[in-house]
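Example for tutorial group B:
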């Protein structure tokens, strides 16, 4: 498969097909590579109504806009904005067209809505969910926790009723997948440190960065979540982006 033919591969062979099945009233989990909550397909429904080629290019445009808008809303200065948009995880994410941009968009949403997005990929967003849990508890104890988390908890319950236990009934071993670029377990101390300071000081930037470092599986483009945690620290971010490009080049051309 050529580089041009592989453009949008994740979207075309997983999400477009899964969304099309859901539109037709079938389980999206008939697609073996679809391992996300069913509501991850809801933003893709309008795209699934279009021919695959047109749908892919429109979804590409949406991804560019989402990456850029997230960086803007997280107050990235020009250098950090440019470094983020030109980082290897973002570029690869735009090439493969997964749902990572949607997950990152959850970081800038109110918690009850954002939870649906960050939990589309827990390996990118579970620390953010934990941050919102602690924040809700501090704001109003159990009542605020319930009002914040009830919608997504109910959505999980409904999804199990409709599609069975899709979490454990996955058809591939994610940790052993060829695309897995997680640094687990070596990254655990860094992830735990970020999580500790995130919850102690209520630092949302650390919450955005922690999850990938604590996950045993992670696609390369999902490292963009870590980068969002440093958008307000433009020189640190730029150095990190340069390092990630060097690592990517070394991995491709050992």
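The residue assignment follows.
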């Amino acid at each position: 498969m050529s580089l041009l033919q592989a453009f949008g591969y994740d979207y075309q062979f997983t999400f477009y097909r899964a969304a099309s099945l859901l539109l037709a009233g079938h389980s999206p989990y008939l697609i073996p590579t679809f391992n996300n909550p069913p509501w991850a397909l809801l933003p893709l429904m309008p795209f699934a109504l279009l021919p695959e080629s047109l749908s892919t290019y429109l979804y590409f445009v949406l991804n560019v806009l989402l990456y850029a808008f997230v960086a803007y809303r997280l107050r990235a200065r020009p250098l950090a904005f440019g470094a983020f948009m030109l980082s290897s995880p973002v570029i690869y994410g735009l090439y493969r067209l997964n749902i990572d941009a949607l997950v990152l968009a959850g970081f800038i949403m109110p918690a009850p809505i954002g939870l649906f997005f960050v939990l589309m990929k827990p390996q990118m967003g579970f620390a953010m969910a934990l941050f919102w849990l602690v924040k809700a508890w501090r704001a109003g104890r159990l009542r605020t926790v319930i009002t914040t988390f009830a919608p997504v908890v109910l959505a999980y319950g409904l999804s199990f009723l409709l599609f069975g236990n899709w979490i454990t009934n996955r058809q591939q071993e994610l940790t052993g997948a060829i695309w897995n670029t997680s640094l687990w377990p070596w990254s655990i101390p860094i992830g735990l440190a970020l999580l500790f300071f995130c919850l102690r000081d209520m630092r949302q930037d650390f919450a955005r960065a922690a999850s990938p470092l604590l996950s045993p599986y992670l696609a390369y483009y999902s490292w963009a979540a870590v980068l969002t945690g440093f958008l307000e620290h433009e020189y640190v971010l730029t150095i990190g982006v340069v390092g990630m490009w060097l690592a990517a080049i070394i991995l491709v051309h050992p």
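Residues 65-252 form one domain. Compare this with the pattern of hydrophobic and polar residues in the output above.
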